[in-house]
Amino acid sequence: MAAYRIVAGVLLLILGRQLFWLFVAVLGFVVGMDWAVRLFPDAGGLLQLLVAVAVGIVGAALASLFYQLAIAVAGFLAGGQLGVELFTVLWPSPDQAVWLVFLLGGVIGAVVLLLVFDWALILLSSVLGASMVAQGLAGRSEQSGILFIVLAIVGVIVQAGMMRRRVPPP
After folding, report:
1. How far apart are CA 81 and CA 148, in angstroms?
2. CA–CA separation, 55 and 106 (whole Å)
3. Are 136 and 9 in contact (CB under 8 A)?
4. Which three-class secondary structure state does DSSP give residue 43?
5. Would you tell me how many other CB atoms lie within 10 Å of the CB of residue 10?
6. Which of 48-52, 67-71, 100-104, 151-155 shows the lowest mean pLDDT across its residues?
């Protein structure tokens, strides 16, 4: 599953802001995969992959049909996922607290994304993409922390540069 995370992470790093529906779909896929592993630990990888794909498709459809609601949901999912990833790095195996951390991070992510959409989307997609790539390549090691910081900075710079080059509508 590391290869899926790396590919999804690279897409978020580079195109998170440009293709909002892709951001939501990839985010839904990653959150679906992580929660499918937690909820169905004994199930095969195929079931977990199907759950992840289904959540990603629902996310992409939501982003296309209900833009503002999709922004809030994407912020909630990104904030929740990022909160869980940071929490598990700081305090390994906190299974009971994961739901609370996900909900708290989700609310914060939704509010932030609704208030400052473009920059929040750039920051959230860069940080989440960097986290996914770093964990996929280096696991939970000291090198993954350094790789995470470098990739997050590169993601913000690339996406901000792409935002500035956008031609304003007439």
Report:
1. 15
2. 16
3. yes
4. coil
5. 18
6. 67-71
**Six-digit token string for 74:** 């994407």
Closest by CA position to 100, among listed 71, 80, 130:
80
CB 123 within 8 A of CB 78: no
Tokens 């509508």 belong to residue: 169
The domains of the chain are located at: 2-164
| pLDDT tens by residue, 85-106 | 888 777 766 567 778 888 898 8
- In the block, residue with structure tokens 């992470």: 9
Write out pLDDT tens, residues 141-153: 777 788 888 999 9
Type of residue found at 46 = L
CA-CA distance, 3 to 53, in Å (whole number)? 15
Instruction: Give the position of tokens 């940071």.
Output: 86
